[in-house]
Specification:
By secondary structure, the protein is α/β, with parallel strands linked by helices. The chain is 38% helix and 21% strand. A nine-stranded mixed β-sheet has the order 3-4-5-2-1-8-9-13-14, sandwiched between helices. The radius of gyration is 23 Å and the shape is globular. The two termini are 19 Å apart. 48% of the residues are buried. The protein binds adenosine-5'-diphosphate. Adenosine-5'-diphosphate (ADP) binds next to helix 1, strand 15, strand 16 and helix 13. The site of adenosine-5'-diphosphate has 19 residues, from helix 1, strand 15, strand 16 and helix 13.
């Protein structure tokens, strides 16, 4: 199959969250099993700094409103493509700063979406599937159904839109219709209008042959009013086209037997290295060599600091959670007000909380390996990768029962010693603390905790299964396209 993955971020090139992991790993997995796969990204500053790219000498010109913008195509290993346009992408961040989104994000991603379509023609790559991801590439299926409707080059091309997080939709003022380049007849509730604004994700939802999300539970949740962020109605009208495929994790990147970031490597056959990782992490974060500290539970958080991730519950729970000597390490970056709240709570408990505001791959690996419990008290979580990475490193998740967390964690039953983590249901710090309390009881039973660690390390979260399901879904998209 000829597959084009279009995304606004992908590992190893640029990453702010799970989308990058998924796009990068899917590209790799599908290529490995013999498909012709291209992945295409904007050429951000960070990619220019880190990778030696090949200049393809190809220029792409597209109209964005009255402006005719020029892009230039670069590549890495032939099939990773990048669109250079320094005016739009040569910046320190991908979408905005902690103060807010970049003001010209609509220009940036209208340009990117149009360029992708033109690149296919320029390089003569006729995709069977264009796999779009989130609002940033939501306009591609829409353009193929409007401006490019009669273009024979894409006659057989089916489109798939994966929604990684419906909370982010790409909303812009109506005046941007002029930049999108289609008539005002599309600015209505059956089109791309959404409560008086233009909605890029909705453009993808109404146009893609298949709509996919990143877990089965999330595929159901987005159809409900309370979790559909206003798009549940339109999604219900396309219900038969909605899939939910759980993400895998990249087993080359996340592998405790080979992880060079760690002070000691380990596997489920011999987990002694995990204790070395815990010891070193305590030393690094709390400057303490005392072996005594190892006896207490060590908790970790790695993630985007947005309101979705439940940091308000962490802050409210902290005094009780840490009262018996437990320690908490937080690594994250996101909204300024959450940074501020976390700084304050850290100041109150300097001996028990270590806070690192920023993006740090090495520290992330060391947290996944070194802590005993990984916290994900999310308000909602489409798939979540952190809990799967944690389990691969023998770290037990404590998480809210929502979205992909439900699909990947079995709530632990202490009497029958059955399960893979600790779940709570109500979005309240009481419910969160109750799950933490149960987890700490199990922690104090060395036989039970060891059995649980071994159990979760043996779970298979690789991409193998998920990639196969993606291929099945692509085949379905082609059937729908033909019908
Ligand atoms: P989301 O996609 O909502 O951000 P996921 O759990 O799906 O959340 O994926 C988050 C990914 O990003 C994980 O691989 C996690 O380790 C990584 N990550 C998030 N924040 C940071 C950070 N500050 N430093 C390093 N890695 C991070």
């Amino acid at each position: 199959m000829n597959i084009l993955i279009s995304a606004s971020e992908a590992v190893p090139f640029a990453k702010t969250g799970g989308l990058a992991d998924v796009a990068g790993a899917l590209y790799k997995e599908l290529s490995n099993i013999g498909h012709k796969v291209y992945i295409i990204l904007p050429l951000y500053k960070i990619i220019k700094q880190k990778f030696n790219l090949r200049d393809s000498d190809l220029e792409i010109k597209v109209d964005v409103g009255k402006r005719n913008l020029k892009g230039r195509l670069f590549s890495y290993n032939d099939t990773c493509l990048f669109i250079e346009c320094d005016e739009l992408f040569d910046r320190d961040e991908l979408y905005g700063t902690s103060q807010g989104d970049y003001e010209d994000n609509s220009t940036r991603f209208i340009f990117f979406s149009k360029c992708i379509i033109e690149v296919c023609k320029k390089i003569g790559f006729q995709p069977d599937i264009i796999h779009c991801n989130d609002w940033q590439t939501g306009l591609i299926p829409f353009y193929l159904k409007t401006i490019y409707k009669n273009d024979l080059f894409f006659k057989k091309t089916a489109t798939v839109l994966t929604i990684h997080n419906i909370g982010y939709q790409g909303l812009f003022p109506p005046s941007d219709m002029l930049m999108i380049g289609v008539g005002w007849e599309y600015f209505n509730p059956d089109g791309i209008e959404f409560y008086g604004k233009i909605n890029f994700l909705k453009a993808g939802i109404i146009s893609a042959d298949i709509i996919n999300t990143v877990s089965r539970t999330y595929a159901e949740e987005i159809l409900r009013e309370e979790s559909g962020f206003g798009l549940d109605g339109i999604l219900r009208t396309r219900k038969e086209r909605i899939f939910g495929i759980i993400n895998g994790i990249d087993y080359d990147e996340w592998n405790p037997t080979k992880d060079n970031f760690l002070p000691a490597k380990y596997s489920y056959k011999d987990i002694r290295g995990k204790l070395v990782c815990k010891r070193e992490l305590i030393k690094k974060c709390f400057g303490n060599n005392s072996k005594d500290l190892e006896k207490y539970p060590l908790l970790g958080i790695v993630g985007r600091l947005s309101s979705q991730k439940g940091m308000d519950l962490v802050i409210k729970s902290a005094p009780q959670m840490l009262s018996s000597g437990a320690r908490l390490i937080i690594l994250g970056k996101g909204d300024e007000y959450i940074h501020q709240d976390l700084r304050e709570i850290q100041k109150k408990f300097p001996d028990n909380i270590y806070l690192y505001i920023g993006f740090n791959d090495q520290l992330a690996h060391n947290i996944y390996a070194g802590v005993d419990f990984f916290l994900m008290p999310s308000k909602y979580e489409p798939c979540g990768l952190g809990q799967m990475i944690a389990m691969r490193y023998g770290t037990i998740p404590i998480a809210r029962a929502t979205g992909g967390l439900v699909d990947t964690i079995d709530d632990y039953e202490p009497i029958f010693c059955h399960g893979t983590g600790f779940l709570f249901y109500d979005y309240s710090h009481y419910a969160f603390l109750s799950a933490i309390k149960t987890a700490f009881c199990v922690f104090n039973d060395s036989r039970k905790i060891e059995m649980l660690i071994l159990e979760i390390m043996k779970k298979d979260f690789s991409w193998k299964n998920s990639a196969q399901q993606y291929l099945e879904m692509y085949k379905r998209a082609l059937v729908i396209k033909e019908s």
